[in-house]
What does this fold into?
Amino acid sequence: MKTQLYDWHTKNGDIINFSGFEMPVMYKSIKEEHMVVRNAAGLFDVSHMGRMWIEGYDSEKFLNLLVPRDLTKTQIGRASYTFMLNEQGGFRDDLVFARIDKNKWLLVWNAGNLIKIKLWMNMFKEILTQFMDLNLTLTEISSSSAMFALQGPKAQDVAITAFKGEIEPPLPWCVHSGSYKDIELILSGTGYTGEKGFEIIVLDTTQKDPSKAERIWELLLESGSRPCGLGARDSLRLEAGLALYGNDIDEEINPIEADLFFPPFIHMDKPYFIGKSHLEYLSDQKPNRTRVGFVAKNKGPSPREGVKLFKEKQEIGIVTSGGFSPLLNLGVGMGYVLTALSKEGTSIQFEVRGKLFEAEIVKFPIFNIDKYGKNRK
It folds into this structure.
C-alpha cells in the first residue's frame, strides 16, 4: 500500500515496507533527522495510520465500553490517549480519540492494526445492535484523508508561518478543525516523539487526487520544517520511552506488565470496559515481568529487538525495541525483565553476537528533560 505522497517520498527518500505500506525510512540521515526534531521542527508523513469518524447520540456510550479510559471526562476539543483491550486484558491496540463535538469523535490507530481495529469496531457494533437500538455511525476515512506529524520545539513557529493566522496551532492534547484556502484540516496537539508538536489531518484528499495533501506537505516544508522518515520516528519515540504496538505491547501483554496501568489511561472505577474483570484479577498479583528502559554504559553495538537481557550471566528478559540514541551517542533499549530486577539503576547486560555488553536500567525519558522534550525549560 502507498500513501498519497508516495511519489514525493520515492524521489527524495529511501523506501521500506512498514506494516504493508511503502514508507520513507529516511531522506538523508536518521541521525540528522532525529536531531532536527529535538532542536527545530521535523515533518513526518503518518498517513498509513487508521482514521475513523464515530458519530451519533450513543457514540460516547459505545466507545466507553471499548476502552478503559473514562471518555465521559474528555471534553469537546480535547484528545485522549488510551487502549483497546481484549477479554484477557491484553492490548488490541493503543490509540487516540479526539472529541470533535458532543456526539462526534475521531479515532486514530496504528497502521499494523488497520484492518483488525476496523473489523473489531464494526463487529462490536453489530453485537450491541442485537440488544439495543444504537444511534451510531462508523465511517473510516483512512484512504480519503492524509495525516502529517509536525514535531519539535519550533513546530509552533512553522505552523504559524504556514497558516498565517488562518488556523491557530493547538495546545497539547487540544484539537480543532479549520480550513486553509480550500483545504479542510484537523489539528491536534499530539505526537509520538516526546517533543511538542501537532498532528495534521488533511480531509477529502485521495490517492487518485492527492493535490490537497501535497499542498499542505509542501507548505509546511517551505515554512521551516524538514522531512523526516520512520527511522527517526522510531529513535525519537524510543528515547521518550513510548511503546510501539507489535514490539513493546501486543495481545499477550497487559497494561500492568507494560507499566501503563494508571489514570488517566485506565479508570478502574468505570462500571465496565472490555478486559476489566481480568485486569482486576491481575492487579491483585505482582507481575512476573515489567517493561523497562535501559542505556548501554559504553560505546559499542546497540541492542536490537529480540536479543536477550542478563543479570550476572543469568537470563532475565528480552529486548522488544532497541537502537542507537543520537542524543546520548550510546545504544538504548526497551524490554521486559523480571519484576524483581526492574528497579532504576540496576546493572544488566544485553547480548549481541554471543557477547554481553553492560547497560543500566533508567527512567523514561532517557534524555535531559530540562534541555529536550515537550517539558523542556
